[in-house]
């Protein structure tokens, strides 16, 4: 049995580059950007008016002029219209390009307009007010978005602004999720008194969907010959095989022996952790990686978020910062295993991230996952954990 740290290290040694592809801008949300996005021109591209009102020459105001003849109305997108004398102004709208002969905007709120004369009612205006200057945010050819990050709505807006109709993104690994177990039936069937509907495979498929990956699914009975035959095909066809179930000590847990028969090199079996102790991990010489998670739903769930996602993000070269929270209650865990405690997160008035244990009834109690936001990793060499101590967390609930 190896430690959690060793398991993580071994998994990270198997990170891979799956290459890149160009996809339409419309389909890129949630994918991983593989190119820098540059400013195609200055941002803003011109001196941009930021309030609806009038544009005046500040010097005229300083010299005591308060009433201005409205020479023209200029909307956003129009060619700038210059004034010919200091007692003129342009009625101008937000988003319009500032004419060269004016240098201050006085918003409608501070003027009165009568018979095409605008009178300033406020005593103070400042030069350059309500103008967003050309190139103030970024200069042409500067990097706006760096590669190796998830494409978010904010990045979509940048891509749209610079006219990137397609984007270079990281290719996703091809993944098959395999459930195992004779007791598991399809969700649209009625279970007998001792059967259950399979759910882990749907959990994993949904979790991958949140990372813009469409995984295939397959189910295997607890029969070694069928397991070997079908697994062979999956190993040949997919970059990653994720299994749930069949890796423990049971009479019908045929997965580890089948994988070894198929020349999937075992990199570890069993990790000093709870849940998920029987986790099996291996690699085939042809490239396929096999994450074989224990079937208990909380174990599968934890292993996916604790290990698989770390592997995936590191393969995509996404920087991952470890997150931490403060334990909000004393907690005791006696076995010499690293405990991944289910926790509810909340922020204190001081801005601290507090973790309240919501333990549940073990690794079969997946209903309890609804109460939790994350796992907190408590070191195996200790048994008592005090309120106020800080430990790493693995967040799985997306805060929308
Ligand atoms: P195993 O790891 O195969 O011994 O399974 C451990 C427990 O997890 C058993 O109670 C299984 O019925 C349950 N289990 C295994 N796979 C799934 C699945 N895909 N969906 C729901 N429960 C499962
Ligand atoms: Mg089983």
Question: Which terms summarize this structure?
Answer:
400 residues, Molybdenum Cofactor Biosythetic Enzyme, Chain A, Molybdopterin biosynthesis moea protein, domain 2, Molybdopterin biosynthesis moeA protein, domain 3, six-stranded mixed sheet, 28 strands, elongated, binds adenosine monophosphate, binds magnesium ion
Give structural notes.
The protein is of the alpha/beta class and 400 residues long. The protein has 4 domains: 4-18 and 172-315, MoaB/Mog-like domain (Molybdenum Cofactor Biosythetic Enzyme, Chain A); 28-41 and 138-170, Alpha-Beta Complex (Molybdopterin biosynthesis moea protein, domain 2); 48-132, Molybdopterin biosynthesis moeA protein, domain 3, CATH 2.170.190.11; 323-395, MoeA, C-terminal, domain IV (Beta-clip, Beta Barrel), CATH 2.40.340.10. Helix content is 18%, strand content 30%. The protein has helices spanning 4-12, 58-62, 153-161, 200-209, 224-237, 255-261, 297-315; strands at residues 20-24, 37-38, 48-49, 53-56, 67-74, 88-92, 104-107, 111-114, 117-120, 131-132, 143-145, 166-170, 175-180, 184-185, 196-197, 216-220, 240-244, 264-269, 273-274, 280-284, 289-293, 323-327, 331-332, 338-347, 353-357, 374-378, 384-385, 390-395. The strands form 8 sheets. A 6-stranded mixed sheet has the order 7-4-6-5-9-8. Helix 1 packs across helix 7 (297-315) and helix 5 (224-237) crosses helix 6 (255-261). Magnesium ion is lined by residues 180-181, 245-246, 295.
């Amino acid at each position: 049995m190896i430690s959690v740290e060793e398991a993580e290290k071994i998994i990270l040694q198997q990170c891979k580059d799956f290459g890149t592809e160009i996809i339409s801008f419309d389909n890129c949300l949630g994918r991983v950007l593989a190119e820098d996005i540059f400013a195609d021109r200055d941002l803003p591209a011109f001196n941009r008016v930021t309030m609806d009102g009038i544009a005046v020459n500040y010097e005229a105001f300083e010299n005591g002029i308060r009433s201005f003849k409205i020479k023209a109305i200029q909307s956003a997108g129009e060619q700038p219209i210059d004034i010919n004398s200091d007692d003129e102004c342009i009625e101008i709208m937000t988003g319009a390009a500032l004419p060269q002969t004016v240098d201050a905007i006085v918003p409608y709120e501070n003027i009165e307009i009568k018979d095409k004369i605008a009178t300033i009612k406020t005593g103070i205006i400042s030069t350059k007010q309500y103008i967003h200057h050309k190139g103030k945010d970024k200069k042409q050819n500067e990097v706006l978005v760096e590669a190796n990050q998830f494409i978010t709505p904010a990045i979509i807006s940048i891509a749209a602004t610079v006219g990137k109709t397609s984007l270079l993104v990281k290719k996703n690994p091809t993944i098959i999720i395999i459930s195992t177990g004779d007791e598991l039936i399809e969700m649209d069937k009625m279970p007998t008194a001792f059967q259950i509907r399979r759910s882990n495979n749907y959990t994993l498929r949904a979790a991958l969907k949140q990372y813009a990956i469409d995984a295939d699914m397959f189910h295997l009975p607890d029969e070694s010959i069928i397991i070997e035959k079908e697994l062979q095909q999956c190993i040949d066809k997919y970059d990653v095989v994720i299994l749930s179930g069949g890796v423990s000590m049971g009479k019908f847990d045929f997965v580890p022996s089948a994988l070894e028969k198929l020349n999937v090199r075992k990199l570890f079996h069993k990790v000093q952790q709870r849940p998920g102790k029987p986790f099996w991990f291996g690699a085939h010489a042809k490239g396929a990686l096999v994450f074989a998670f224990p079937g208990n739903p909380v174990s599968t769930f934890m292993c996916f978020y604790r290990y698989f996602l770390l592997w995936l993000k590191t393969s995509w070269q996404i920087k991952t910062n470890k997150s931490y929270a403060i334990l909000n209650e004393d907690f005791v865990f006696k076995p010499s295993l690293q405990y991944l405690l289910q926790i509810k997160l909340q922020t204190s008035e001081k801005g601290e991230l507090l973790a309240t244990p919501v333990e549940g009834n073990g690794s079969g109690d997946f209903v309890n996952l609804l109460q939790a936001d994350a796992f907190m990793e408590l070191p195996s060499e200790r048994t008592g954990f005090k309120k106020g101590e800080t430990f790493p967390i693995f967040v799985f609930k997306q805060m929308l």
